[in-house]
C-alpha cells in the first residue's frame, strides 16, 4: 500500500472516529437539544457529496471515511429528531 493511501486512511479514521464520542453521549443521555439541526443536515449533505465523489474516483480512504461518517451523522440526526426538537 502506498504511503499516500496510508495517510488518507489515517486522516479518514481520525475524522470519522471524532464523531463517536458525540454519538455515544447523545445516545446515553438522550439529550440533543444543543446540537444544531442545520449543522447536522449540512454535514450529512457534505458527507454524501464526498462519498459520491470518492466512489466516482474510486478512492478507498474517501469511501471508507464518508460511509462511516454518514452513518454516524445519520444516527445523530435520528436522535436529534427523536429527542432534541424541544419539549
Number of separate strands: 0
How would you spell out the order of helices and strands? Answer: HHHH
N-to-C terminal Cα separation, in Å? 51 Å
- Quaternary organization: single chain
Largest sheet: none
Task: List the defining traits of the structure above.
87 residues; 4 helices; mainly alpha
Describe what you observe in this structure:
Helices cover 80% and strands 0% of the residues. It is an all-alpha fold. The chain has a domain at 36-87. α1 runs parallel beside α4 (60-83) and α2 (20-29) runs parallel beside α4. The radius of gyration is 14 Å and the shape is elongated.
Secondary-structure blueprint of this entry?
Layout: H1 3-17, H2 20-29, H3 37-57, H4 60-83
Helix pairs in contact: 1-4, 2-4, 3-4
Amino acid at each position: 500500500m502506498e504511503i499516500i493511501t496510508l495517510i488518507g486512511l489515517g486522516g479518514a479514521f481520525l475524522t470519522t472516529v471524532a464523531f463517536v464520542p458525540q454519538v455515544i453521549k447523545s445516545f446515553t443521555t438522550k439529550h440533543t437539544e444543543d446540537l444544531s439541526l442545520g449543522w447536522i443536515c449540512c454535514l450529512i449533505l457534505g458527507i454524501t457529496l464526498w462519498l459520491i465523489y470518492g466512489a466516482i474516483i474510486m478512492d478507498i480512504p474517501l469511501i471508507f471515511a464518508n460511509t462511516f461518517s454518514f452513518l454516524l451523522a445519520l444516527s445523530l440526526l435520528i436522535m436529534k429528531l427523536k429527542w432534541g426538537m424541544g419539549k
